[in-house]
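Sample 1 of the test manifest.
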Amino acid sequence: MTSAPSGLGALAAAPVPPPPPPVRPLRGALRALPTMLRVHFAEVVAWRAEMLVWVLAYTMPLIMLALWSAVAREAPVGRFGEREFRAYFLATLVFRLLVASWAVWEMNIEIREGNIAARLLRPIHPLLSYAAQQASAFPMRIVLAVPIVIASLLWIGADVVTRDPVQLLLLPLTLVGAWAVTFLVMVMIGSLAFRWESALGVFDLWLGLYFVFSGYLMPLELLPDWLQSIVRWLPFPYMLAFPVENALGLIDRGTTLRALGIQWSWAALLLWGALAAWRSGVRRYSAYGG
Amino acid sequence: MTRYLQLFAIQVRASLLLALQYRLDFFLQFGIAIFWSTSTLVPLWVLFSQRPGVAGWSWPEALVVVGFFLALKGVLATVIQPAVAQAVSHVRNGTLDFVLLKPADAQFLVSTAHFELARLADLAGGLALVAFASWRLGEPIPPTAIAVSLLLFAGAVAILYSLFVLVLSLAFYFVKVDNLSFLLSSIFDAARWPSSVFRGVLALLFTFVIPLALMTTYPALALLGRIDSARVAIALGIASAFLVLSRLAWRRAVRQYTSAGG
């Protein structure tokens, strides 16, 4: 931490500037990461009331829960009774809260208003700084999620959670994967804002598909078989439905491992796509303003 | 009165010109609105492919409710949300003074400041869905039922509008309420199902605090001929009460408003 400022000071004082040390981008980024996380975490804490309102606005799973409970009251749908629906939609609520990201809106505003120039100047890849910003909200999200989880488990009973130790161990990995897919898609679509004003419109389209095919509105196994076999290859289920199904033991261990493979393949593919979209976007970019 | 109609026409024309200027964006918004509306039907379609009815509602009957919900959402997105967004920024930046100084009613000016015309797609789509569902019901609907239904829908618009004016009045005290209006619209999402779906606390909340049942279920019941005149009268009474209440709240808020600028 202290070496960088003093190095700068020496640079200003010396009549002949010494040659700059060879920059190792990745190492520098890793060194800066804890500080970046701390700064962004302070931001999140400062805006905590804002965040609480955003969380309260995640009403959709509860609205869907009311509908499907009304259905299940008459007779179970597939293997979903009232209790199973409760567990499913509360898990959906909590996991959505945990893996959510707002990078696309952030990028859109920064690109339009020109503030992104500040990010471009820093000696750290801007995508990494966006990632740090999003990740630093995680502790706050956990703080908000824990009471919901506890209340849900008291209400429904803890035995809705999977008993399989492998599935429990993989749970954090499925969530990180879901977060990565969510974030990288946002960066990819957000990079469109470099060349096109309507990038948020594209994201709205994506969001519409996400709502239907991510398991947010209903458990995916209630979809017709032909549709389900297509949807399982798309990225949407791996952003929400898969972690939920894994945590509740709705799928067996083998399926979990296979799905984890698909999820992380999507994450890798999207990482490549996000980097490419960003690079080609920045090349076209000329800052607004002075 | 004619002056206000003229003013209204002028404001609509300004929004129309703006929409025509950004044509591509307009059509994109239009398409997205239709796409979103269709996607809300998917869970319902999956549900009714397994069951003939839910909580006393058949597939076409539930579609009538969803249609009214979409239409109301169209009104919300076309008129109410842009107005609230603009008014909140007026309060925050102190530019509300310019609105208050104009020789017309400030609430009227704020409410008609901007129309997001692309979102009329929701209104049209919702009403088309209502018409389609009524046709699927197979029985001809008497004109009186249609009239009562439209009357109740107008009442629903009044309630929705009043709720947002109430939120807006809070902006004078708390300055930052765009989150609150966001929260209100996400609660309004619960109006997409017939009110008999909700039980317990939610049922009480949606009947007495935010009268969602009045907004979409009652117009649908009227169209299906399942509503009595007493309930129609109560619904319209509540709608009028909301209008009066929101008007009072607005006047009170404006009176104690001290400009932010200087």
